[in-house]
From TrEMBL:
Domain AB hydrolase-1: 47-151
Pfam families found in the cross-reference section: Abhydrolase_1
Species per Swiss-Prot/TrEMBL record: Lentzea atacamensis
InterPro entries noted in UniProt: AB_hydrolase_1, AB_hydrolase_fold
Protein name: Alpha/beta hydrolase family protein
GO molecular function, one term: hydrolase activity
SUPFAM superfamilies attached to this UniProt entry: alpha/beta-Hydrolases
Transmembrane segments: none
Record's keyword terms, sorted: Hydrolase
Hydrolase in keyword set: yes
Length: 253
């Protein structure tokens, strides 16, 4: 199957999961219970999963905004580019949003997006209040489902023949890969939460057990993590604590 075919297959899975999961989320108290002061203006930068765009985290963005956070997408387009280039763009977004919101922000990433967010947090801990990774294979970026790896290799093949804006072979096995794998396992200087599910059919759950993060188990599919009410139930008190800490620090200042 071609790279486009693989990405279309992933997109169809996302649509099917969304059709089943979104109604459950919208009926749940974690969605309906709104407190506009909870986030205290804390900024959040959201990074989508492999092959997805900011649109895939629309509901997460809405949930955060309704609770007083200031969320923005990472603005990287579809998450199919070179790892190092994407981390550069996340860093730029971090700088912009930290300045706009008056302090360090939360990074929230799904799947590959969580791994990229972690790399940005290692690079710029001064800009990060906390890190959330949803189903991210941080211990082995190449440990995802074979279909995902086939799509990645196909994209690298397209890059090799001159198609711009895609990950290349160096991202999968070269210097770029080695440097980023080393950074991906570096200790974190900021609080982090890694959400995993033993029902994850894309990323083996043990690959999400980041030794520098708090581990939170949910019972979700891989692509459904950003839509699952159990994820929001788990994240809500942790995000609120980071927001309260920011508010307290402002009072001290």
């Amino acid at each position: 199957m071609s790279a486009v075919g693989q990405l279309r297959s992933l997109a169809r899975e996302n649509v099917a999961v969304a059709a089943l999961t979104i109604p459950r989320l919208l009926r749940h108290s974690v969605w309906r219970d709104v407190n506009p002061h909870e986030g205290a203006g804390l900024g959040v930068v959201l990074m989508p999963g492999f092959g997805a765009s900011d649109f895939s985290l629309t509901l997460a963005t809405t949930w955060l905004r309704d609770r007083g956070y200031l969320p923005v997408g990472a603005g990287v387009g579809f998450n199919v580019g070179c790892t190092s280039a994407l981390v550069d763009r996340i860093e730029q977004r971090l700088e912009e949003h930290a300045e706009a919101t008056g302090g360090p922000v939360v990074l929230l990433g799904q799947s590959r997006g969580g791994g990229l967010a972690r790399l940005a947090a290692v690079r710029r801990p001064d800009l990060v209040r906390g890190l959330v990774m949803l189903g991210s294979p941080v211990l082995d970026p190449m440990g995802a489902h074979p279909h995902v790896l086939l799509a990645a290799r196909a994209l690298a093949g397209l890059s090799a023949i001159g198609v711009p804006g895609l990950m290349d072979n160096d991202c999968l096995s070269g210097t770029c890969f080695e440097d980023n794998v080393a950074a991906a396992t570096a200790p974190l200087e900021i609080p982090a939460v890694s959400v995993y599910s033993k029902s994850d059919g894309i990323v083996p759950w043990r690959l999400s057990l980041d030794p520098s993060a708090e581990h939170v188990e949910v019972h979700s599919t891989h692509t459904g993590m950003g839509l699952d009410p159990d994820v929001y139930l788990a994240l809500r008190p942790r995000l609120a604590a980071w927001a309260a800490e920011r508010f307290d620090l402002r009072d001290v200042g």
